[in-house]
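User: Protein-glutamate O-methyltransferase CheR, Paenibacillus piri:
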Amino acid sequence: MDAVDGKMTDLEQLEIELLLEGVYRRYGYDFRQYAYASLRRRIWHRIHGERLKTVSELQSKALHDRSCMERLVSDLVIHVTEMFRDPGMFAAFRKQVVPMLRSLPSVRIWHAGCSTGEEVYSMAILLQEEGLYERATLYATDVNENVLQRAEQAVFPLKKMKAYTKNYILAGGKDEFSKYYTAGSDAAAFQPSLKERIVFAQHNLVTDRSFNEFHVIFCRNVLIYFDPVLQAHVHDLIYESLSGSGILVLGDKETITFTKHASSYEVLNPHEKIYGKIN
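Assistant: Predicted structure for Protein-glutamate O-methyltransferase CheR:
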């Protein structure tokens, strides 16, 4: 029995390897080096969600049905986010970028891959405190419709508020963080006013084109999931979408150093990955 189970496990692992190889070759998403146990769990979640029975059936559907592929990728991409995540970046943004934005009659900011919205609400709070929110429009996009719906609700677990408050203080917050939300029994609902200048929309960085010209683009911890070809494609999209002297903010493990656009940016803050497009 153990030998049979072993062969079935080997077969399943082979199927998963073929699925990941197919997704990589067909779409450019590279999950081949991800931790196997976590991948297996997420893949089976998608198999059940598609009402299929085997990994091979999922492979066939994902390779022929782009919407299925997007659902699979959404399951495989880990949505790790929190309010004022990497508070040093927000502190640097206040100090270095906000003064640049003050000279603009209106400000357009794009949060690409916004997940459940914590980053965009953090920016809304920062802009309110800096007196810029009323002339700003924040575009929050993600490939996953489910996380976008959660983002629009602006409701987050109450148990996270302690950590979020600490981040807010380290990010240079100017008020009491608790003023921005109403606490329930187990959830915190953020002020409706924080949503007034936010536009939520589905957007796929891989397949969709630029939809506006932005003064600031946040694309943090998104590119790490893409292979080099797709990373280059997204960098082209970002460059095309930035205004003449626009600001790009990447995640702490991402860089423009090895892209063809590297010479088109000046490094405003190397530690916090804040770059200015050279006009």
